[in-house]
Amino acid sequence: MKSTFLLRFAVAVILIMHSVPGMFNNGVNDFGNLYLNTIGFAPFGLAIAWSIKLSHVAAALLLLLNKYVKPAAIITILILVVGIFMVHLPDGWYVVGGGRNGVEFNFLLIFVLLVIMYPNGITKKTVASHS
Fold it and tell me: In total, how many domains does the chain have?
């Protein structure tokens, strides 16, 4: 997994920048209270929002330390997939250019995390070792 350092570093920076500023500018609270709570997650929206952002920080640290990379990546991938369906899909594919706030960035992050988890690709041997 040492060969994945550059990708792990890039994803860690993205996760930190997607989380930490919102912790200080009320973004996490707004996401929990003004979005999650209003679409049916009340009264847990705020706790869910903070759990998501804290998981991003934890995943970033684990990626940088090269520890528990697969569990951190799996949790992050699950959050990204849910984010696609709950937040980004209604806006289409493009993040910028042909649209705004679409799924393309989450799609890319998911596959980068898969490459970090399986730097030699997913093979029959890889699948068998997880059975």
Answer: 1
Give the alpha-carbon dihedral of 86, 87, 93, 94, to 10 degrees. Answer: -170
pLDDT value for 127: 67
Contacts of 19 (CB under 8 A, 6+ apart): 28, 53, 54, 56, 57, 60
Residue 127 burial (CB < 10 Å; 0-12/13-18/19+)?
exposed
If one counts every other C-beta atom within 10 angstroms of the C-beta of residue 97, the result is 9
Range of the domain at 8: 2-129
Predicted local distance difference test score (pLDDT) of residue 123? 81
Full-model pTM: 0.90
DSSP state letters, 54-112: HHHHHHHHHHHHTSSHHHHHHHHHHHHHHHIIIIIGGG-S-SSSSSSS-SHHHHHHHHH
Cβ contact 88:106 at 8 Å: yes
